[in-house]
Design goal:
965 residues; alpha/beta; Barwin-like endoglucanases; Vcp-like ATPase, Chain A, domain 2; six-stranded mixed beta sheet; Peroxisomal ATPase PEX1; membrane; AAA+_ATPase
C-alpha cells in the first residue's frame, strides 16, 4: 500500500483530481487517495501528470483554497482500498447565489460532474465547474450507503437549499414570521421592477446579506460636471430608491464592501469599495430613465478592466466588517517621474473626495492625474486594502519605489464609432421599431424581433447599430451576437452546446439580448423535399425553437434575428398559424432617392471627384441596396485607376460612373432573368398612334420627369390593359414601350404561373411581383391575361379564382407598386374578372384595332425599310388590296415576297447583294396569303369589344367555362 509525504503544487486543470508524477505510474489511474493535512482528512481520485515533479502532488488552486490547503505545504497521502459505489449523495451550496446557479444549470452539472470528481466524502467541500468561467462550491452533507464512496452514472444527487443565513435572534417565531412578510413584497419586486420598497430597519441586523449587482461603466452616465471631481475609482454607485438602501446605510461601516465576481466566488481577484448613492451625481431627468435599473451598480471603468469582464457581469458585494487602517503608504511608480511630483498629485487625488473615510486598494494601477499611473501598498502588514479618514491622511507617511506600472487594458471596446448608415431613413425606422418592441414603459421587455430584408439591405449594420445603442445609457443591456454563417455545418449537439453556453452568459448578465444574424442559414425551409439536409434543418430548427422559447420566457432575454425572408425560415421557427417565436416582424424598406444620394456622397467623398451629378446617379441606381451602391463606387474607382494608373488617389469623373453603372448588377437582380425588349421602339411600329401616346404618358413621363410625378397629389395610373384581335401588335408594344422608356421588361405568359398544387399558383404570382419590385423601374407584362385571370366562379378547379384574389391583392394592396408598371394583353377582355378592371388596378383599357388603309400603308412602309423595293412597287395599292389584314399578316406578306425574290435570283444565277422586290412579286405574294381572321371572326371580335366597352353582363358570358385542363 502506497504512502508518502509530498509538497502541494497548484495546477490549472478544472477538476477535483489529484495529480501525481510519472514516478508513481505503477499506481492505477483513478486510484483512491486519502490526503491528510493539519489533522484533516480529504479523499480524492488520483491520476498521473507529466508536468508534476517527483516530490509534488498537483491539485487545482481553487479546490485547494476551498479546502484550506496552501501551495508548497506538505501533505501526507495514503492509498486506500477500492471504495463502494455511492447510491445517493446530498449536497448543499454555500450561498443562495450558488444555489440559484446550480438549480438553473442542473442539467449541465449532471452531464459533466463525473468528468470533474469521482471520490466524495461526507463533510468535505468540493468545487463544481460549470462552463469555462463559472464554478460553485458545495458541501457534502450525506453519502449513502457507505462513506466515502465513488460516484457512478446511477448515483442520485440531491441538492439542498442553503441554511444558516439567518442569525439567531431573541424574537419569537411568530413575531419573526410577521417581519418576514416583506419577502413576499420582494418577490413582487423581482417580477415587476417598478415596485419600490425598503427592508424594515428591525431586520437589518438579522441578515448577513451578500449583495448581487450588474456592473455598468459609470462613464456612460450624464454626470453633472460639478460632481466629476468626487468620482474616485473605488467609489461605486447605486440608486437611492433601490430595495436594499437601508441595509447598507444604517451605519457608517456598511458603506464599505468587498467586491468579487459571481462566476467564481473564490477568484483571487477582489477589491474593497465604498458604496454611494447615484442620485448625487446625475440630474432628476436622468434618474427617471434609470429608475427601473435597481440591479445595476455603476463603477469606474478601471474596475471593469481590473476584473477583465463585460457589461452586465454579476458581482457580489460582501460587507467589509473590519476595515484596515494604515500609517504608511508605499507608492510604486515609473522611473521617468519624480517622486515629489507623484506625491503632490497623489495627495491632491486623495483630497478630492468629499466624504471620509475613503477606501484604497493595494496592487491596483490607478491614474492620479497628469498621465501618472501608480500602485499603492500598505506596509508593514501589506493588507489588500485600507480605509483612510482625515487623521490617517494627514499623519500618513509615504515611501516610493521605482517600478514600471502599466495601465489596465481597456476591456470594453470603444463603441463611439460613428455609423453613417444609421442616418438613413429606412435604417432609422427599423431601429425605432426594434426599440419599441423591447423597451416599453421605460423598462426592458422580453420580446423577440425578426428583421426581414433582402441581401445587401443593411441587416447586419442595423444589428451592430442596435448593439451600440443598447449597450449605452439609459439601457445598459448586455448583448451577444451569433453569426450563423460561421457555425453552419456543425452537428445538432455542437450547436446545442454553443447556444447553451451563450445563454448561460446571457442569463447571468440579464437583461440581455441575443443577436442572431442570418438565421435562415441554420433554419432553412425545405418543405416538400426529402433529403438528409431537410432532416438536419428540421432537427436544428426544432432544437433552437425549444431552447430559445424556454429560456427567453423564463428570463429577461430578448432575441433579435435577421433573415432574408420569413418564407425561408423553417416551420419550427416561424409558423403560418399558432404561437410564434417571433411575434414582432420588422421589414427594411427600399432606399429612397434621398437615401441613395446620401450614400453616393458618403462613398464618393472618400476620393477626389469632378462634376458628379448625384441626383442623376441616384435616378439611375433606383432599386439598388446599400451593398450595390458600395460596389458601384468601387467599380467607378477602378475605372478611374485604369485611366490614371500613376495617381495615388485618381480623380473620379462622370464618365467613370457611367461605365461602372453599366457593369454593376444589383444583388436582387443577379438571379432574375429579364426578357429582351428587342431593338424596336415606337418608331418601328406602324399605326396605333393613340395607344403609343398613352403608353408614353403612362410609362415614359414618370421616369423622365420623376421629380414632378413624385409630388403628385393622387396615385398615378400604373396598370394598363391592351386588348384587340390577334396579330395587332399587343405583345410587340410591350417590348417597344420598355425600350422607348428605358425600363426593364419582365414578361409572363399567363398559363406558366398556374399549377395543380394548392397554393403554388398564388405563390408564383407573389414571386413575380416580388421580382418586379426588385427590378424596378420595370414593366411587368402579362400576355394572354385571360387564361390567368378569368371571371371568378367559372373555374371547375378553383385555381384561377385564388389566382385572381392574389392578383387583386398585389395590384391594389396596402403597399403601392412604386416603380412597377403593370401591362396586360388579351384578345378576350370580356372573360376577365371585372374586379381587375376597376380604378387602382388595370384601370385604363386601350384597344388595338385592325389597321385601316393608312395604317396598313404605314405598317408596310416601316416593315419594308430593310428591303429593296423596285421603283414600280406601290405600297399604297397593296394597302388597299389588304383590307382585313392585321399587322402580323402584312409582315407575313412581305416575308413571302422576299422569299420569292430570292428564288428568282437563284434561278437566273445572278449574284447580287440584295434581292429586289417588284410590284409583281408583291401581287403574287398577296395572292398566296390570306388574312389570319376571316370576316366572320372579325365581326365576332367587334361585337365582343362593343359589349366590353359598353359593359358586359352575366348573361353575355352565360355558358362560358374556364378550366385548368
Amino acid at each position: 500500500m502506497y504512502e508518502n509525504v509530498l509538497r502541494v503544487k497548484y495546477v490549472n486543470f478544472k477538476n477535483g483530481f489529484l495529480y501525481l508524477s510519472p514516478k508513481h505510474s505503477y499506481l492505477k489511474t483513478g486510484v483512491c487517495i486519502k490526503l491528510i493535512y493539519k489533522e484533516k482528512r480529504y479523499y480524492f481520485s488520483a491520476t498521473i501528470l507529466n508536468i508534476v515533479d517527483d516530490d509534488c502532488v498537483g491539485i487545482n488552486s481553487l479546490y485547494a483554497k476551498a479546502l484550506g490547503i496552501n501551495e508548497n505545504d506538505f501533505v501526507n497521502i495514503l492509498q486506500i482500498e477500492q471504495l463502494p459505489i455511492v447510491r445517493s449523495v446530498n449536497i448543499q451550496p454555500l450561498t443562495i447565489s450558488d444555489y440559484e446557479v446550480l438549480e438553473l444549470l442542473a442539467e449541465n452539472v449532471q452531464s459533466h460532474l463525473l468528468d470533474q470528481i469521482r471520490v466524495i466524502n461526507a463533510g468535505q467541500e468540493i468545487v463544481i465547474w460549470i462552463g469555462s468561467n463559472i464554478s460553485i462550491t458545495v458541501f457534502i452533507n450525506e453519502v449513502q450507503p457507505l462513506n466515502p464512496g465513488l460516484l457512478d452514472f446511477l448515483t442520485e444527487v440531491v441538492i439542498k437549499t442553503p441554511t444558516g443565513l439567518i442569525k439567531k435572534n431573541s424574537k419569537s417565531k411568530e413575531n419573526f414570521k410577521d417581519e418576514m412578510k416583506f419577502l413576499e413584497h420582494f418577490k413582487e419586486h423581482l417580477k415587476n421592477k417598478r415596485v419600490e420598497f425598503t427592508i424594515p430597519k428591525e431586520l437589518i441586523n438579522i441578515f448577513d446579506v451578500d449583495l448581487v449587482y450588474r456592473l455598468v461603466p459609470l462613464s456612460e452616465l450624464p454626470i453633472l460636471e460639478s460632481k466629476l471631481t468626487i468620482c474616485q475609482p473605488f467609489k461605486v454607485y447605486v440608486l437611492k430608491n433601490g430595495p436594499l438602501q437601508e441595509l447598507f446605510h444604517s451605519d457608517t461601516n456598511r458603506r464599505f464592501y468587498t467586491m468579487y465576481l459571481l462566476q467564481n466566488s473564490y477568484n483571487s481577484k477582489e477589491i474593497s469599495i465604498e458604496l454611494c448613492f447615484l442620485d448625487d451625481l446625475v440630474n432628476d431627468e436622468s434618474l427617471n430613465l434609470l429608475n427601473n435599473c435597481f440591479s445595476n451598480v455603476y463603477v469606474d471603468i478601471s474596475i471593469i478592466n481590473f476584473f477583465h469582464c463585460e457589461l452586465g457581469t454579476r458581482i457580489i458585494l460582501k460587507q467589509l466588517k473590519n476595515p484596515f487602517e494604515v500609517s504608511e503608504i508605499e507608492v510604486h511608480h515609473g522611473k521617468n517621474i519624480e517622486s515629489k511630483d507623484v506625491l503632490q498629485e497623489l495627495k491632491l487625488f486623495l483630497a478630492l473626495s468629499d466624504s471620509e473615510p475613503q477606501v484604497l486598494n493595494a496592487n491596483f494601477p490607478i491614474n492620479i492625474g497628469k498621465n501618472i499611473c501608480c500602485c499603492l501598498k500598505f506596509p508593514p502588514n501589506f493588507n489588500s486594502s485600507c480605509v483612510l479618514d482625515g487623521n490617517n491622511l494627514r499623519n500618513c507617511s509615504y515611501s516610493f519605489c521605482f517600478e514600471d506600472i502599466k495601465p489596465l487594458e481597456n476591456v470594453l471596446k470603444d463603441t463611439e464609432e460613428q455609423n453613417f448608415f444609421q442616418s438613413l431613413a429606412c435604417v432609422e425606422i427599423v431601429f425605432k421599431n426594434i426599440l419599441a418592441c423591447i423597451w416599453k414603459n421605460d423598462s426592458f421587455q422580453s420580446e423577440n424581433v425578426l428583421i426581414c430584408g433582402k441581401t445587401g439591405m443593411g441587416k447586419s449594420s442595423i444589428l451592430k447599430h442596435t448593439i451600440r445603442i443598447l449597450n449605452k445609457y439609459p439601457y445598459f443591456v448586455y448583448t451577444q451576437i451569433v453569426q450563423c454563417k460561421a457555425i453552419k455545418g456543425k452537428t445538432v449537439d455542437s450547436l446545442h452546446k454553443i447556444f447553451t453556453d451563450i445563454f448561460s452568459k446571457l442569463i447571468l448578465c440579464q437583461p440581455s439580448i441575443l443577436i442572431v444574424d442570418d438565421l435562415q442559414v441554420l433554419c432553412e425551409n425545405c418543405e416538400g423535399e426529402d433529403t438528409p439536409n431537410t432532416v438536419n434543418f428540421n432537427r436544428v430548427s426544432e432544437m433552437l425553437q425549444s431552447l430559445l422559447n424556454s429560456i427567453s420566457k423564463e428570463n429577461g432575454i430578448s432575441i433579435v434575428a435577421s433573415t432574408d425572408s420569413v418564407a425561408k425560415l423553417n416551420r419550427h421557427i416561424y409558423k403560418s398559424r399558432g404561437n410564434h417565436l417571433f411575434k414582432n416582424i420588422v421589414s427594411i424598406d427600399n432606399l429612397t432617392k434621398a437615401d441613395r444620394v446620401a450614400l453616393l456622397k458618403y462613398f464618393f467623398e472618400k476620393s477626389p471627384t469632378k462634376d458628379l451629378d448625384y441626383s442623376s446617379l441616384a435616378n439611375k441606381s433606383d432599386g439598388f441596396v446599400i451593398q450595390d451602391i458600395k460596389d458601384f463606387y468601387e467599380k467607378a474607382l477602378f475605372e478611374s485607376f485604369k485611366e490614371f494608373p500613376i495617381e495615388e488617389k485618381p480623380l473620379i469623373e462622370q464618365n467613370h460612373c457611367d461605365i461602372a453603372l453599366k457593369k454593376t448588377c444589383s444583388l436582387s437582380l443577379q438571379n432574375v432573368k429579364f426578357h429582351s425588349a428587342g431593338d424596336k421602339s415606337f418608331e418601328d411600329i406602324g399605326g396605333l398612334s393613340e395607344v403609343k401616346n398613352i403608353l408614353t404618358q403612362s410609362f415614359l413621363w414618370p421616369v423622365k420627369y420623376s421629380s414632378i410625378f413624385q409630388n403628385a397629389p393622387i396615385r398615378l395610373q400604373t396598370g394598363l390593359l391592351l386588348y384587340g384581335p390577334p396579330g395587332t401588335g399587343k405583345t410587340l408594344l410591350a417590348g417597344a414601350a420598355a425600350k422607348q422608356c428605358g425600363l426593364r421588361l419582365i414578361s409572363v405568359k399567363g398559363p406558366e404561373l398556374l399549377s395543380k398544387y394548392i397554393g403554388a399558383s398564388e405563390q408564383a404570382v407573389r414571386d413575380v411581383f416580388e421580382k418586379a419590385q426588385s427590378a424596378k423601374p420595370c414593366i411587368l407584362f402579362f400576355d394572354e391575361f385571360d387564361s390567368l385571370a378569368p371571371r371568378r366562379g367559372h373555374d371547375n378547379t378553383g385555381v384561377t379564382d385564388r389566382v385572381v384574389n392574389q392578383l387583386l391583392t398585389q395590384l391594389d394592396g396596402v403597399e403601392s407598386l412604386t416603380g412597377v408598371c403593370v401591362l396586360a394583353a388579351t384578345s378576350r377582355p370580356d372573360l376577365l374578372d371585372p374586379a381587375l378592371l376597376r380604378p387602382g388596378r388595370l384601370d385604363r383599357q386601350m384597344m388595338c384595332p385592325m389597321p385601316d388603309k393608312d395604317e396598313r400603308q404605314d405598317i408596310l412602309r416601316i416593315l419594308s425599310r430593310r428591303l429593296e423595293l423596285a421603283p414600280d412597287a406601290d405600297l399604297a395599292q397593296i394597302a388597299i388590296k389588304t383590307e382585313g389584314y392585321s399587322g402580323a399578316d402584312l409582315q407575313s406578306l412581305l416575308y413571302t415576297a422576299h422569299i420569292s425574290s430570292l428564288k428568282i435570283v437563284n434561278n437566273e444565277e445572278i449574284i447580287a447583294d440584295k434581292s429586289i422586290i417588284s410590284q409583281n412579286i408583291l401581287l403574287d405574294a398577296l395572292s398566296k396569303t390570306r388574312p389570319s381572321l376571316i370576316k366572320s371572326e372579325r365581326e365576332k371580335y367587334n361585337r365582343i369589344y362593343e359589349r366590353f366597352q359598353g359593359g358586359s353582363t352575366e348573361e353575355d358570358i352565360k355558358g362560358l367555362k374556364v378550366t385548368l385542363a
